[in-house]
Amino acid sequence: MLKPGKIYYSIGEVARFFDVNPSLIRFWEREFDVLRPKKNKKGNRLFTEKDIRYLHIIYNLVKVKGYTLQGARDVIKHDIEQLEDQTFVLQALHNSLNFLQQLDAVLERRAKNL
Description:
Elements: E1 9-10, H1 11-18, H2 22-31, E2 38-39, E3 45-47, H3 49-64, H4 69-113
Antiparallel strand pairs: 1-3, 2-3
Helix pairs in contact: 1-2, 3-4
């Protein structure tokens, strides 16, 4: 989803990336102090890569691990650096998996054509 050279992402792009409604992103923005997207003159939210990294952390804690909002806030407050490192590694692994799946599909198509 993150595009090289792109600085800002709309709330719609971010919501699609996490497969959630934009309203959930807005809700998390109110609930978690680390989320502070910029807003343009119209009031549209503009998320940076840093905001998206924080959303990865929040998503993982709340949606994947089942933390309560307060529990997630507490973990973020005390362990944000470790969570950022873990999120970076998880994203790299996810990207590698996607690449390997795409490569496998290409190789299967080529094998069928032989």
